[in-house]
Amino acid sequence: MTRCHPRAYGTALAALDPAARRAVEGSFAGLRFIRGQLGHRADPGDFIQPPPGGGTAPPSAWTWAPLSPPAPHRGTAREASPYREYRAYLAGRPLGQTLARTAGFLSQAHATAGHAGHRNSPAATR
Fold this sequence. Notes:
Layout: H1 6-14, H2 18-37, E1 48-49, E2 63-64, H3 76-89, H4 95-115
């Protein structure tokens, strides 16, 4: 979305109040941290945990697991910020909350991109 429709993405961000904007951007940074860890240092199951009391809670009620900081290595400064965002906006919170926040924002950005006209879409340039 940020590459194909940067204007729509920026417009959707600007429409949010400052706290919601920080939450959306923090959630995306936390999700990028997860993406960067998958397959190299972690399995998907390392990032989630059942809610307290367990039971048969739906997956959306599971929470993001609190994780230790990644081991220092080349590029540590680059990885420190996404880890901090993961801890601040995801860890301990329900998966459904994060997914609803990010999907809702992306839906809004997508709708904004659609209203911008189809002349900017990749298909229209073929």
